[in-house]
Amino acid sequence: MERLDDVNAWRAYADAQRAQGRRVGLVPTMGALHAGHASLLGEAKAAGDVVIATVFVNPRQFNDAADLRGYPRTPEADYAVAEACGVDCLVEPTLAQMWPDYPRPTSTTVSVRGVSEVLEGADRPGHFDGVASVVAKLFAITGPCRAYFGEKDFQQLVVVRQMVRDLALPVDVRGCPIVRDEDGLALASRNVRLSAEGRTRALALSRALGAVSGAGTASGHRRRMLEVLDAAGVEIAYAEVVDPLTLAASGDDEEGERRALVAGVVEGVRLIDNGPVTLVTKESHALSN
Ligand code: AMP
After folding, report:
1. Which ranges of the chain have pLDDT less than 70?
2. pLDDT tens digits for 105-161?
3. Ligand 1 atom with the shortest distance to the CA of 34
4. How far apart are CA 275 and CA 209, in angstroms?
5. Residues in contact with 21: Cβ distance below 8 Å, sequence separation at least 6, in sequence order
6. How many angstroms is it from 188 CA to the middle of ligand 1?
7. How far is CA 21 from CA 4, 13, 16, 50, 173, in A?
8. For residue 107, what are the CA distances in angstroms to 5, 103, 110, 131?
9. pLDDT of residue 231
10. Which pTM does this prediction carry?
11. Torsion sign, CA atoms 109, 112, 117, 119
12. What whole-number distance in Å separates Cα of residue 227 and Cα of residue 217?
């Protein structure tokens, strides 16, 4: 496995792979790699790509300095995971390489309006500008590739897809399913900050999504998810049902497949989760019962 920290060497590596007729698969991460990241790497391998994994804790997407300071960093363990997953090139760019002007703001920011402004974006000002800007840069350095993102960060996936469409970037974005622990908790690097008791409370997020697995109205689903989160003592950020492409909130007159997203804070750790839901109107629900 190659291990690089230099942007030019990384660009040259990707160019050389393509010149030899190989397809590059990019898996961007912030490290503290777990089985969720490994599944993305596995998908890239399975597609036959030359896999470039990046580990960069991007300060520009943190809207909370304490969260950035406390973000887990485990470079040696990450190296072992990457190697075990068959990564071809592990890139750990330095802050100076990625953001030479930091902590001054960049002159150029990629801002994906609309889909960045709701849900996580409403609670975390600037977060998705930081995400879109760093992902645009990762794409610019890597060049034409397939890029793998987890549905765990559903809104992030929507933002990245929209950016790729809007800017005609030569990137094929692939969404990968959420990996969960046996008890249902969606794997996340920040989970290590939870106590045993906090972890139990955090299970309310996946439980809330489970509670809306049957067909129902948008407002009924919202109410049900809020009840589950509230009963568990989660500090609720939102429980929403939205259109999976536009993230527009669903109304009670809508039917069909939508996405439910929940977010909350447990022991100071922000947690998110999501899953598919089916909407039916009250009228058609009554007819089928
Ligand atoms: P992060 O290191 O948290 O920025 O995540 C890097 C990538 O891994 C993102 O595309 C995430 O959506 C994805 N990811 C993180 N956790 C999971 C999970 N539990 N299941 C699937 N993908 C995940």
Report:
1. 289
2. 999 999 999 999 999 999 999 999 999 999 999 999 999 999 999 999 999 999 999
3. 16
4. 6
5. none
6. 7
7. 22, 13, 9, 10, 20
8. 24, 12, 10, 15
9. 98
10. 0.97
11. negative
12. 15
Does 188 sit in the ligand 1 pocket, CB within 6 Å?
yes
CATH of domain 2-176: 3.40.50.620
What Å distances lie between residue 207 and 1, 201, 231, 243, CA to CA?
A: 40, 10, 11, 21
pLDDT at 289: 64
Domain ranges of the chain: 2-176, 189-284
Q: Is 285 a catalytic residue?
A: no
Ligand 1: does its nearest atom lie under 6 Å from the Cβ of 36? yes
Could you give the CA distance from residue 1 to residue 28 in angstroms, rounded to a whole number? 17
**The domains spanning 2-176 and 189-284 adopt the same CATH topology:** no
User: Which fold is adopted by the domain 189-284?
Assistant: Pantoate--beta-alanine Ligase; Chain: A,domain 2 (3.30.1300)
CB neighbourhood size of 143 (10 A):
16
* Structure-token pair, residue 149: 């993102």
Selecting among 37, 127, 221, 285, the annotated active-site residue is 37
